[in-house]
Structures are given as structure tokens and as C-alpha cells.
């Protein structure tokens, strides 16, 4: 499982010109599911995203607070292209990405786990062409993999 975590002041996702998910201060999570991922990877990744201390506490700007501590919001967007292997040729290979049906089930389970925190969690639309607007804060962007 791969997640690109971006600390944002706001983020939204549009499908066919319509806003389907929108958040204020928090995280934009771009999520890729591998064929080999299990419930254990989902649990680990949800806990990591919720517990990571990347928000400042005070004027020093140190990473002292988690998204839960600031009562932030989360926008989760599926992105199978995180498993694009570009080492050979001119076209990415997606052999490591989970098949769409399985990936969608795993993605939905991941979203459920994040929602269990009680935070506002919005999503994109699995498998749709989306336009994602991200106002990165910092900028802070982390690559998480399990």
C-alpha cells in the first residue's frame, strides 16, 4: 500500500465538473493499493496517517501535533498510478496494482478505518476521472508505504 500524504489548508475533488469531496485544514491522501495488500496494511496505514505528528504547535513550526489533535479533515483519493513502474520502456506497467474490484473494496475499508476516528473524511470517486485541487501547506508531502 502506498499513500502520498499532503498537509493541506484545503483540498477538493471534482468529477464531471461537480465537487464531490471538499475539506479544509488537514490531509489530502492519494492512495494506491497493491495486489498483495491485506487488512494488516490497511490497519497500519490508517493508524500511521491518524497518528503522524506533522502539524505545528506554536510559533516554532515544529511537527508536534497529529491530525486528530487539531481535529483536521481528510480527503482520500484513489490513485492506482502510484504503482506505475516506469523502469522499462516508455509506458508505465501497473502489474503490482490490485485489480479494480479488489482495490475498490480495500480502498473503501481504508476509508472506513479513517472514519472510525470521528474526523471528517471525504472521498473522490473510485475509478473516475477526477480533478484534484490541493493547497499544500508548508509544503509538507510524505510518501508512506507498507
Give a summary of the structure in a few sentences:
The protein has 146 residues and is of the alpha/beta class.
Fold and architecture overview:
This protein is α/β, with parallel strands linked by helices and 146 residues long. The protein is 20% helix and 41% strand. The strands form two sheets. Strands 1, 2, 3, 6, 7 and 8 form a six-stranded mixed sheet that branches. A two-stranded antiparallel sheet has the order 4-5. The model has no long low-confidence stretch (mean pLDDT 96).
Spell out the blueprint of helices and strands.
Elements: E1 2-15, E2 18-23, E3 26-32, H1 39-51, E4 53-56, E5 63-66, E6 73-78, H2 100-115, E7 120-123, E8 131-145
Parallel strand pairs: 3-6, 6-7
Antiparallel strand pairs: 1-2, 1-3, 1-8, 4-5
Features:
6-stranded mixed sheet, 146 residues, globular, two-stranded antiparallel ribbon, single chain, alpha/beta, 2 helices
Amino acid at each position: 500500500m502506498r499513500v502520498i500524504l499532503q498537509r493541506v489548508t484545503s483540498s477538493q475533488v471534482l468529477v464531471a465538473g461537480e465537487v464531490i469531496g471538499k475539506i479544509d485544514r488537514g490531509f489530502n491522501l492519494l492512495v494506491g493499493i497493491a495486489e498483495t495488500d491485506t487488512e494488516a496494511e490497511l490497519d497500519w496505514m490508517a493508524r500511521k496517517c491518524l497518528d503522524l505528528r506533522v502539524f505545528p504547535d506554536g510559533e516554532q513550526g515544529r511537527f508536534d501535533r497529529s491530525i486528530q489533535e487539531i481535529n483536521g479533515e481528510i480527503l482520500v483519493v484513489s490513485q492506482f498510478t502510484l504503482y506505475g513502474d516506469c523502469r522499462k520502456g516508455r509506458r508505465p506497467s501497473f502489474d503490482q496494482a490490485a485489480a479494480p474490484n479488489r482495490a475498490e473494496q480495500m480502498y473503501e475499508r481504508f476509508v472506513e478505518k479513517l472514519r472510525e476516528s470521528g474526523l471528517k473524511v471525504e472521498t473522490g470517486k473510485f475509478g473516475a476521472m477526477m480533478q484534484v485541487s490541493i493547497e499544500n501547506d508548508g509544503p509538507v508531502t510524505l510518501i508512506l508505504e507498507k
